[in-house]
UniProtKB/TrEMBL annotation:
Coiled coil (residue ranges): none
Residues annotated as domain NAD-dependent epimerase/dehydratase: 3-231
InterPro entries named in the record: Epimerase_deHydtase, Lipid_A_modif_metabolic_enz, NAD(P)-bd_dom_sf
Organism taxonomic ancestry: Bacteria, Bacillati, Bacillota, Clostridia, Eubacteriales
Protein name, per record: NAD-dependent epimerase/dehydratase domain-containing protein
Amino acid sequence: MKIVVTGATGFVGKWLVAELLKQGDEVTVVVRDEKRIPNGWRDSVYVVEAEAQTLFRLEKKDFPWDHADIFFHLAWAGTAGMERADTILQLQNVHTTCDAVRLSKRLGCGRFVNAGSIMEYEAIQYIAIDGSIPDMRNIYSTAKVAANFMAKTVAVKEEVFYINVIISNIYGVGEKSPRFLNTTLRKMLRNEKIELTHGRQYYDFIYVTDAVKQIVLAGKQGKVNSVYYIGNAQQRPLKEFVVEMKQVLHSDSELMFGKIPFSGAMLTYKEFDTSKLEKMGFAPEVPFAEGVKLTGEWMLEKAYAY
């Protein structure tokens, strides 16, 4: 298949491109800086250099084919840290997502895959409640909701086959973000005390190589205007994951559960069919303990834990 990927130099994007190449697909990546392309790709992918906010300027002549089959849109600025609270940046992401749908139409793509977020569901469930107290990090989650709803609507108008993949908690070798699992792993490798919530909220973590296989499966075989959860069919309380991480890493960190007040949504995972992709033939290959071990070893090798 002929595939277009935005956000290809991000953590998930790099692994997604690697999986597509492994499956024998022809891949074009849209990146803002060609210098960020891994050396191993240079003879394997076609590169279109463009800022995300300029996708509306791109035309078929900028790409190597007369048409493409699938457009995977992963580009999103400000996925972690304080940039999640940047209203201008997050609204630009919404606009860019709609531009990406229109670009996929110009390229003759039969399918458009949007990288959604589990935080969409947290925002819908929590912010709408009377008396809820959202914080500025919810700007990111509400932008994800808007991007999904608006892009889906644009796709219907443009007659583009739309799929939203709900990314939960992907982790693994190569991630450098300050997200929860990454931050907690680093603290454990340093044997620091770790302040946590009560840990009773249900969570799910999936290793990145499994996650990108799910994303590709949803893109190639998913149904129009459908949602596919990227994760495992079984969830557990967060506390169980944290305790297992400490055991795998042989950490001396003190786990201070209940030290941080919990606010926000308590997802039950009944919000989506977490087994949908397994019914389509997917089976996860990397257990949580193995994924934590691989990620921790990579952090130590790169001195990223310090």
